[in-house]
UniProtKB/TrEMBL annotation:
This is Helix-loop-helix protein-like protein. The keyword Nucleus applies. The lineage of its organism: Eukaryota, Metazoa, Ecdysozoa, Arthropoda, Chelicerata. One of its GO terms (biological process) is cell differentiation. Signal peptide: none annotated.
Length: 107
């Protein structure tokens, strides 16, 4: 089969006419409009372009999340100062430190 043939070419070498292609596109569009909202959303999310965009947004979100934890970690006193803390440890230490600072202000 020739590489110059269109995508609509079948194994038999048949090339659909413009009218046939238009009819196929119209049927496809009609079938898409009859789908439920959930099904349209599911099909849109199944595309490679959508998945790549979603993965990129997720990486940016996780990076911002990690930066926020690093900034919070710098504000908390620990011994030793460079001790590696998990995110839950950072949150618990922040709560304790805020309670301590409130106590200092009250006294």
């Amino acid at each position: 089969m020739s590489q110059s043939m269109s995508q609509g070419t079948l194994q038999t070498g048949f090339v659909p006419s413009n009218t046939e292609m238009a009819m196929r596109n119209e049927r496809r569009l009609t079938s898409l409009t009859n789908l439920s909202r959930e099904e349209r959303r599911r099909r849109r999310r199944a595309t490679q372009k959508y998945r790549l965009a979603h993965a990129s947004r997720e990486r940016i979100r996780v990076e911002a999340f990690n930066i926020a934890f690093a900034q919070l970690r710098k504000l908390l006193p620990t011994l030793p100062p460079d001790k590696k803390l998990s995110k839950i440890e950072i949150l618990r230490l922040a709560i304790c430190y805020i309670d301590y600072l409130n106590h200092v202000v009250v006294v």
